[in-house]
Specification:
nine-stranded mixed beta sheet; seven-stranded mixed beta sheet; flat
Length: 396
Amino acid sequence: MGRVTDLAQFTALLTPEGQALLAALRDYDPAQELAVVSRLRRDHQAELVTSAVGQARLRQRAVAKFGAEDAYRMYFTPNGVEQSTRASVGTYRAARLAALGVGSVADLCSGIGGDAIALARAGISVLAVDRDPLTAEVARANAEALGLAELIEVRCADVTEIDTSPYDAVFVDPARRGGRGRIFDPEAYSPPLSWAVEAARKAPRAALKVAPGIPHEAVPEDAEAEWISDGGDVKEAVLWFGTEPGARRATLLPSGAGLTGRGLPDPAVRPVGRYLYEPDGAVIRAHLVAEVAQELDGGLIDETIAYVTADALTPTPYAAAYEVTDELPFNLKKLKALLREREVGTLTVKKRGSAVEPEEIRRKVKPKGPNSATVLLTRVAGAPTMLIGRPAGGGR
């Protein structure tokens, strides 16, 4: 379907008839879609019903990122739902820009406006730029729907042609998906990371959103790199300009706990102690496991594995803690016998440095009984190992 046709169909959703359809579809069950569509087509044009049902599906998907209150007032495209920033992350980033004294931002590659919304709610005026007419129109509709139109100017244009000099800061979120899926090469982003970096350097402050898997050697020397997780899942990395050049930081949401690198050497490898700590993914991506190990007075169980072990239980927001009850060489028969003996029916399987899949373990050991346990499949000093234990208080 061409973008002009898409745009016309989207505009139809903004009419009173389109709005009434969307309101009626708010709580519809996708499993009943055929019946719902047939019923609605008796009173409305087929194209408008199709558009409304598609938008209702996207809104339901968007609840996980934006919350129900916003998602059911906003508008989305399939790419917009997939690529937009989770609201909690956008809110955090906007608050940090506001704390830096930023009052206006040029939001380049703004998509459906998720980041522009977070910035505006932080009291920042935003120029939101996207080259796709439909996406720009959706962003404009979102600003209107959430009462933020006075703070958000939407412009359909090529970001490379925008003069950002009037703005306090630049935010760039390059497209990291193509026709074949996710793009891993930063120079294959649209626009390329090198262009975004140059645009950032022209502004007093800047934030560039990049994939969390960005190689550390690809981070410019004059940038601060921050990895952000939300609920334990790593969501993104941000390259900051005009803050702390060379700094490496991990930020954990929703707590807001932040850890900054101190240039520590790799921790020593030591035998497994009473407790095992699994650092948050943002800590691992930021290469800050050594900082966590120092805080815990711990060491690594293997020089290539990001598990920290210690003899004491120390509260930390940066890692989940487990009390280790058994350390065994990898052997499924022994694991099955041990779990049967302890009547373990609820089994959590985690892995790091092991090729074995957790589902395969659960299928083969067939846990049964009233008790629970955690099995960590990993390597200890190079040897495939099973660590059995349970979550311990004091971790995140």
